[in-house]
Amino acid sequence: MATRPTLKPLALILSVLFLGGLAAGNYFVFQQAPFGSCTLGPSPVLMGADLSQPACLNYIYYFIGAPLAVGLLLLLILPRLVTTGTALQQAKPTPASTETKKSAPPPTPAKPPPDAAVQLLALFQREGRLVDFLREDIQPYDDAQIGAAVRTIHQTCRQVLVEHLTLEPILSGQEGDEVTVPKDFDPSAIRLTGNVSGEPPFRGALRHAGWRASRVKLPDQPRGQDPKIVAPAEVEIP
């Protein structure tokens, strides 16, 4: 795209000063006659000026030298004070680009694949038979029988949880402590119950600190294995 060169404000100021100085000098020479009088005679040279007079030579030197000196100064100074439109665009970003940078949303964290939930459930099933326990009807059993089974399932499933997940509480404090819910709280991380009215921040009693998974470490599945298999069927061959 073609761009037009433009002058910086300083270049315009210097040009006005030089030309103003030249005009002031011309006015002074014409009005004050500092070199003396120069008689115009019938000589055809230089509009009839008699070059034999020293004053006339001085006037000629001035009217030739002064504009030449001003022109040379402008030629030396002005090229350094010229900018192109492209350079200006690179040096000063447009408000639109600045607005875009400020309003750019933060990157969305990558969501874990849905197969990860099935894989974690498979680990609970493999180590503690958790799926079997949850699917079984425990109503016919008494509390003593259930308690003995739960102790074993709790121990093995807790080991899976510690090995593959790092959990941290969302809010610090003990249950029953008074906490403050900030104005910009995340509704997916903090659930409000009870008499909720008005605008945050809110003050209330902590009923559960919540859990956030800060680390998930699942083993790689063998190639070719169906990721939706929680537990394979077992067949004993006699």
Notes on the structure:
The chain is mainly α and 238 residues long. The chain has two domains: 6-91; 115-189 and 199-216, no CATH class. Helix content is 45%, strand content 9%. The chain contains seven helices and six strands; from the N terminus they run E-H-H-E-H-H-H-H-H-E-E-E-E. It has helices at residues 9-32, 54-77, 85-91, 95-103, 115-128, 130-135, 143-164; strands spanning 6-7, 82-83, 165-168, 178-181, 202-205, 212-216. The strands form three sheets. A two-stranded antiparallel ribbon has the order 1-2. It has a two-stranded antiparallel sheet with strand order 3-6. The model is unreliable at 41-52 and 86-90 (pLDDT under 50).
Figure out the total of helices.
7
Shape: elongated
Largest sheet, if any? 2 strands, antiparallel
Strand content: 5-15%
Structural class determined from secondary elements:
mainly alpha
Mean pLDDT equals: 77
Question: Mind telling me the C-alpha Rg?
Answer: 46 Å
- Strand neighbour order, sheet with most strands: 1-2
Estimate percent helicity. Answer: 40-55%
Euclidean distance between termini CA atoms: 83 Å
Q: How many beta-strand runs? A: 6
Provide the domain count. 2
Q: Could you name the ranges where pLDDT drops below 50 across 5 or more consecutive residues?
A: 41-52, 86-90
Order of helices and strands: EHHEHHHHHEEEE
